[in-house]
Design goal:
Elements (H helix, E strand, L loop, with lengths): L3 H40 L4 E12 L5 E11 L6 E7 L5 E9 L2 E3 L1 E6 L2 E7 L6 E12 L3 E3 L2 E9 L10 E6 L10 E6 L2 E7 L2 E6 L9 E7 L10 H41 L12 E3 L4 E3 L34 E2 L2 E2 L1
Parallel strand pairs: 1-11, 10-18
Antiparallel strand pairs: 1-2, 2-8, 3-7, 3-19, 4-5, 4-8, 6-7, 9-10, 10-15, 11-14, 12-15, 13-14, 16-17
């Protein structure tokens, strides 16, 4: 009779575990179903989204880039009627000829520079829910990257600093006819995009799916050096000079480190010369005087021990930006709403 509870208890525990497993499975299924909504809440809800952003970059013979950005906003609920766009100036000499258009009519806009960025602001009528399409046009001077190995368009066409999703995005880069059949390579960085060559002077990049906030698309098109009548931009010259000074600073740090090691070596050498170590042993050198009460000891080992020094580690800070392999080196980007 005492064995009955022992037989029933495992069955009861097994049944409880089965129920618990069903409950956990049900909860996991609910969480999976709610994950898109939870992700939206985590990112913060916004009263609008971009149906699309299309960017066209027309490279001129003098190296300027005429950029046209078409933004279609879809407002789902009341929101402020002020829009803005800002673009970093660290990889360009300057941005000029800024205009904003709606329904093929130019509308008033304001521009300014703050924190090494140019900002563009404009206002419009808004009675949500409704959609508005704006076209931003501007000229980029000194935006090409000029190197002996080639010249390239390197531009963050879809900016990351925003709070709403972009459902569709397309970037087109057009080169002048003098560069026909001269495109060497083209690629995109950041959010996945499909790239294809449309004709001998035009490349198209299309986002593979909707682009969430804090994601960007950067495009690069490489063509031969010294075909366009363009010189290295001022920002690139300044960056090169800064790189030289950084290299000199790093070299100085390395030399200082070797000076420390050389000083430690000299100290060890001086100690070795001034305090030589006597390690010889004289076999049978000790003596015992019978009846004299004296005990003669042999030679004692000399003075030992060396002096060590620690090295000094570390170097100057990280290097400068990006490159073709990982992206992050182009101009453009910024944010908008």
């Amino acid at each position: 009779m005492n064995e009955l509870p022992v037989l029933i208890e495992p069955y009861s525990q097994k049944k409880s575990r089965f129920k618990l497993r069903k409950i956990l499975t049900f909860l996991v299924a609910i969480l999976i179903g709610l994950s898109p909504a939870l992700q939206t809440i985590a990112q913060g809800t916004t009263p609008f989204y971009w149906d699309f952003i299309n960017v066209e970059i027309d490279v001129q013979k003098n190296g300027d880039m005429l950029v046209s950005e078409t933004h279609k906003y879809v407002f789902t609920q009341p929101h402020t009627n002020q829009r803005y766009r800002y673009i970093p100036l660290d990889k360009v000499d300057k941005i000029t000829d800024v205009t904003v258009w709606e329904n093929q009519e130019q509308i008033p806009s304001q521009t300014g520079i703050k924190n090494n960025q140019i900002w563009i602001k404009w206002q419009h009528k808004l009675n949500a829910p409704e959609a508005h399409t704006f076209v931003l046009k501007y000229r980029v001077i000194g935006g090409l990257h000029i190197n002996d190995s080639g010249e390239k368009v390197y531009w963050k066409a879809i900016f990351a600093n925003r709070s709403a999703v972009i459902k569709n995005a397309k970037i087109i880069v057009r080169l002048p006819e003098v560069l026909s059949e001269k495109i060497q390579t083209y690629k995109s960085f950041g959010f996945p995009a499909k790239a294809r060559k449309i004709n001998s002077t035009t490349v198209e990049f299309v986002a593979k799916k909707a682009i969430p906030p804090q994601q960007e698309i950067e495009v690069m098109v490489l063509f031969p050096h010294n075909i366009l009548d363009v010189s290295k931009p001022n920002w690139q010259r300044t960056q090169a000079i800064s790189s030289i000074f950084s290299g000199l600073a790093l070299l100085g740090s390395i030399l200082n480190m070797y000076k420390v090691y050389f000083g430690i070596f000299l100290i060890i050498l001086i100690i070795a010369i001034c305090f030589p170590s006597n390690r010889r042993s004289r076999r049978g050198s000790g003596s015992y005087s019978r009846g004299s009460g004296g005990y003669g000891g042999g030679d004692y080992g000399g003075y030992g021990g060396g002096y060590g020094g620690g090295g000094y580690g570390g170097g100057d800070g990280g290097g400068y930006g990006g490159g073709d392999g990982g992206g992050g080196d182009g101009g453009g980007g910024g944010g908008g709403e």
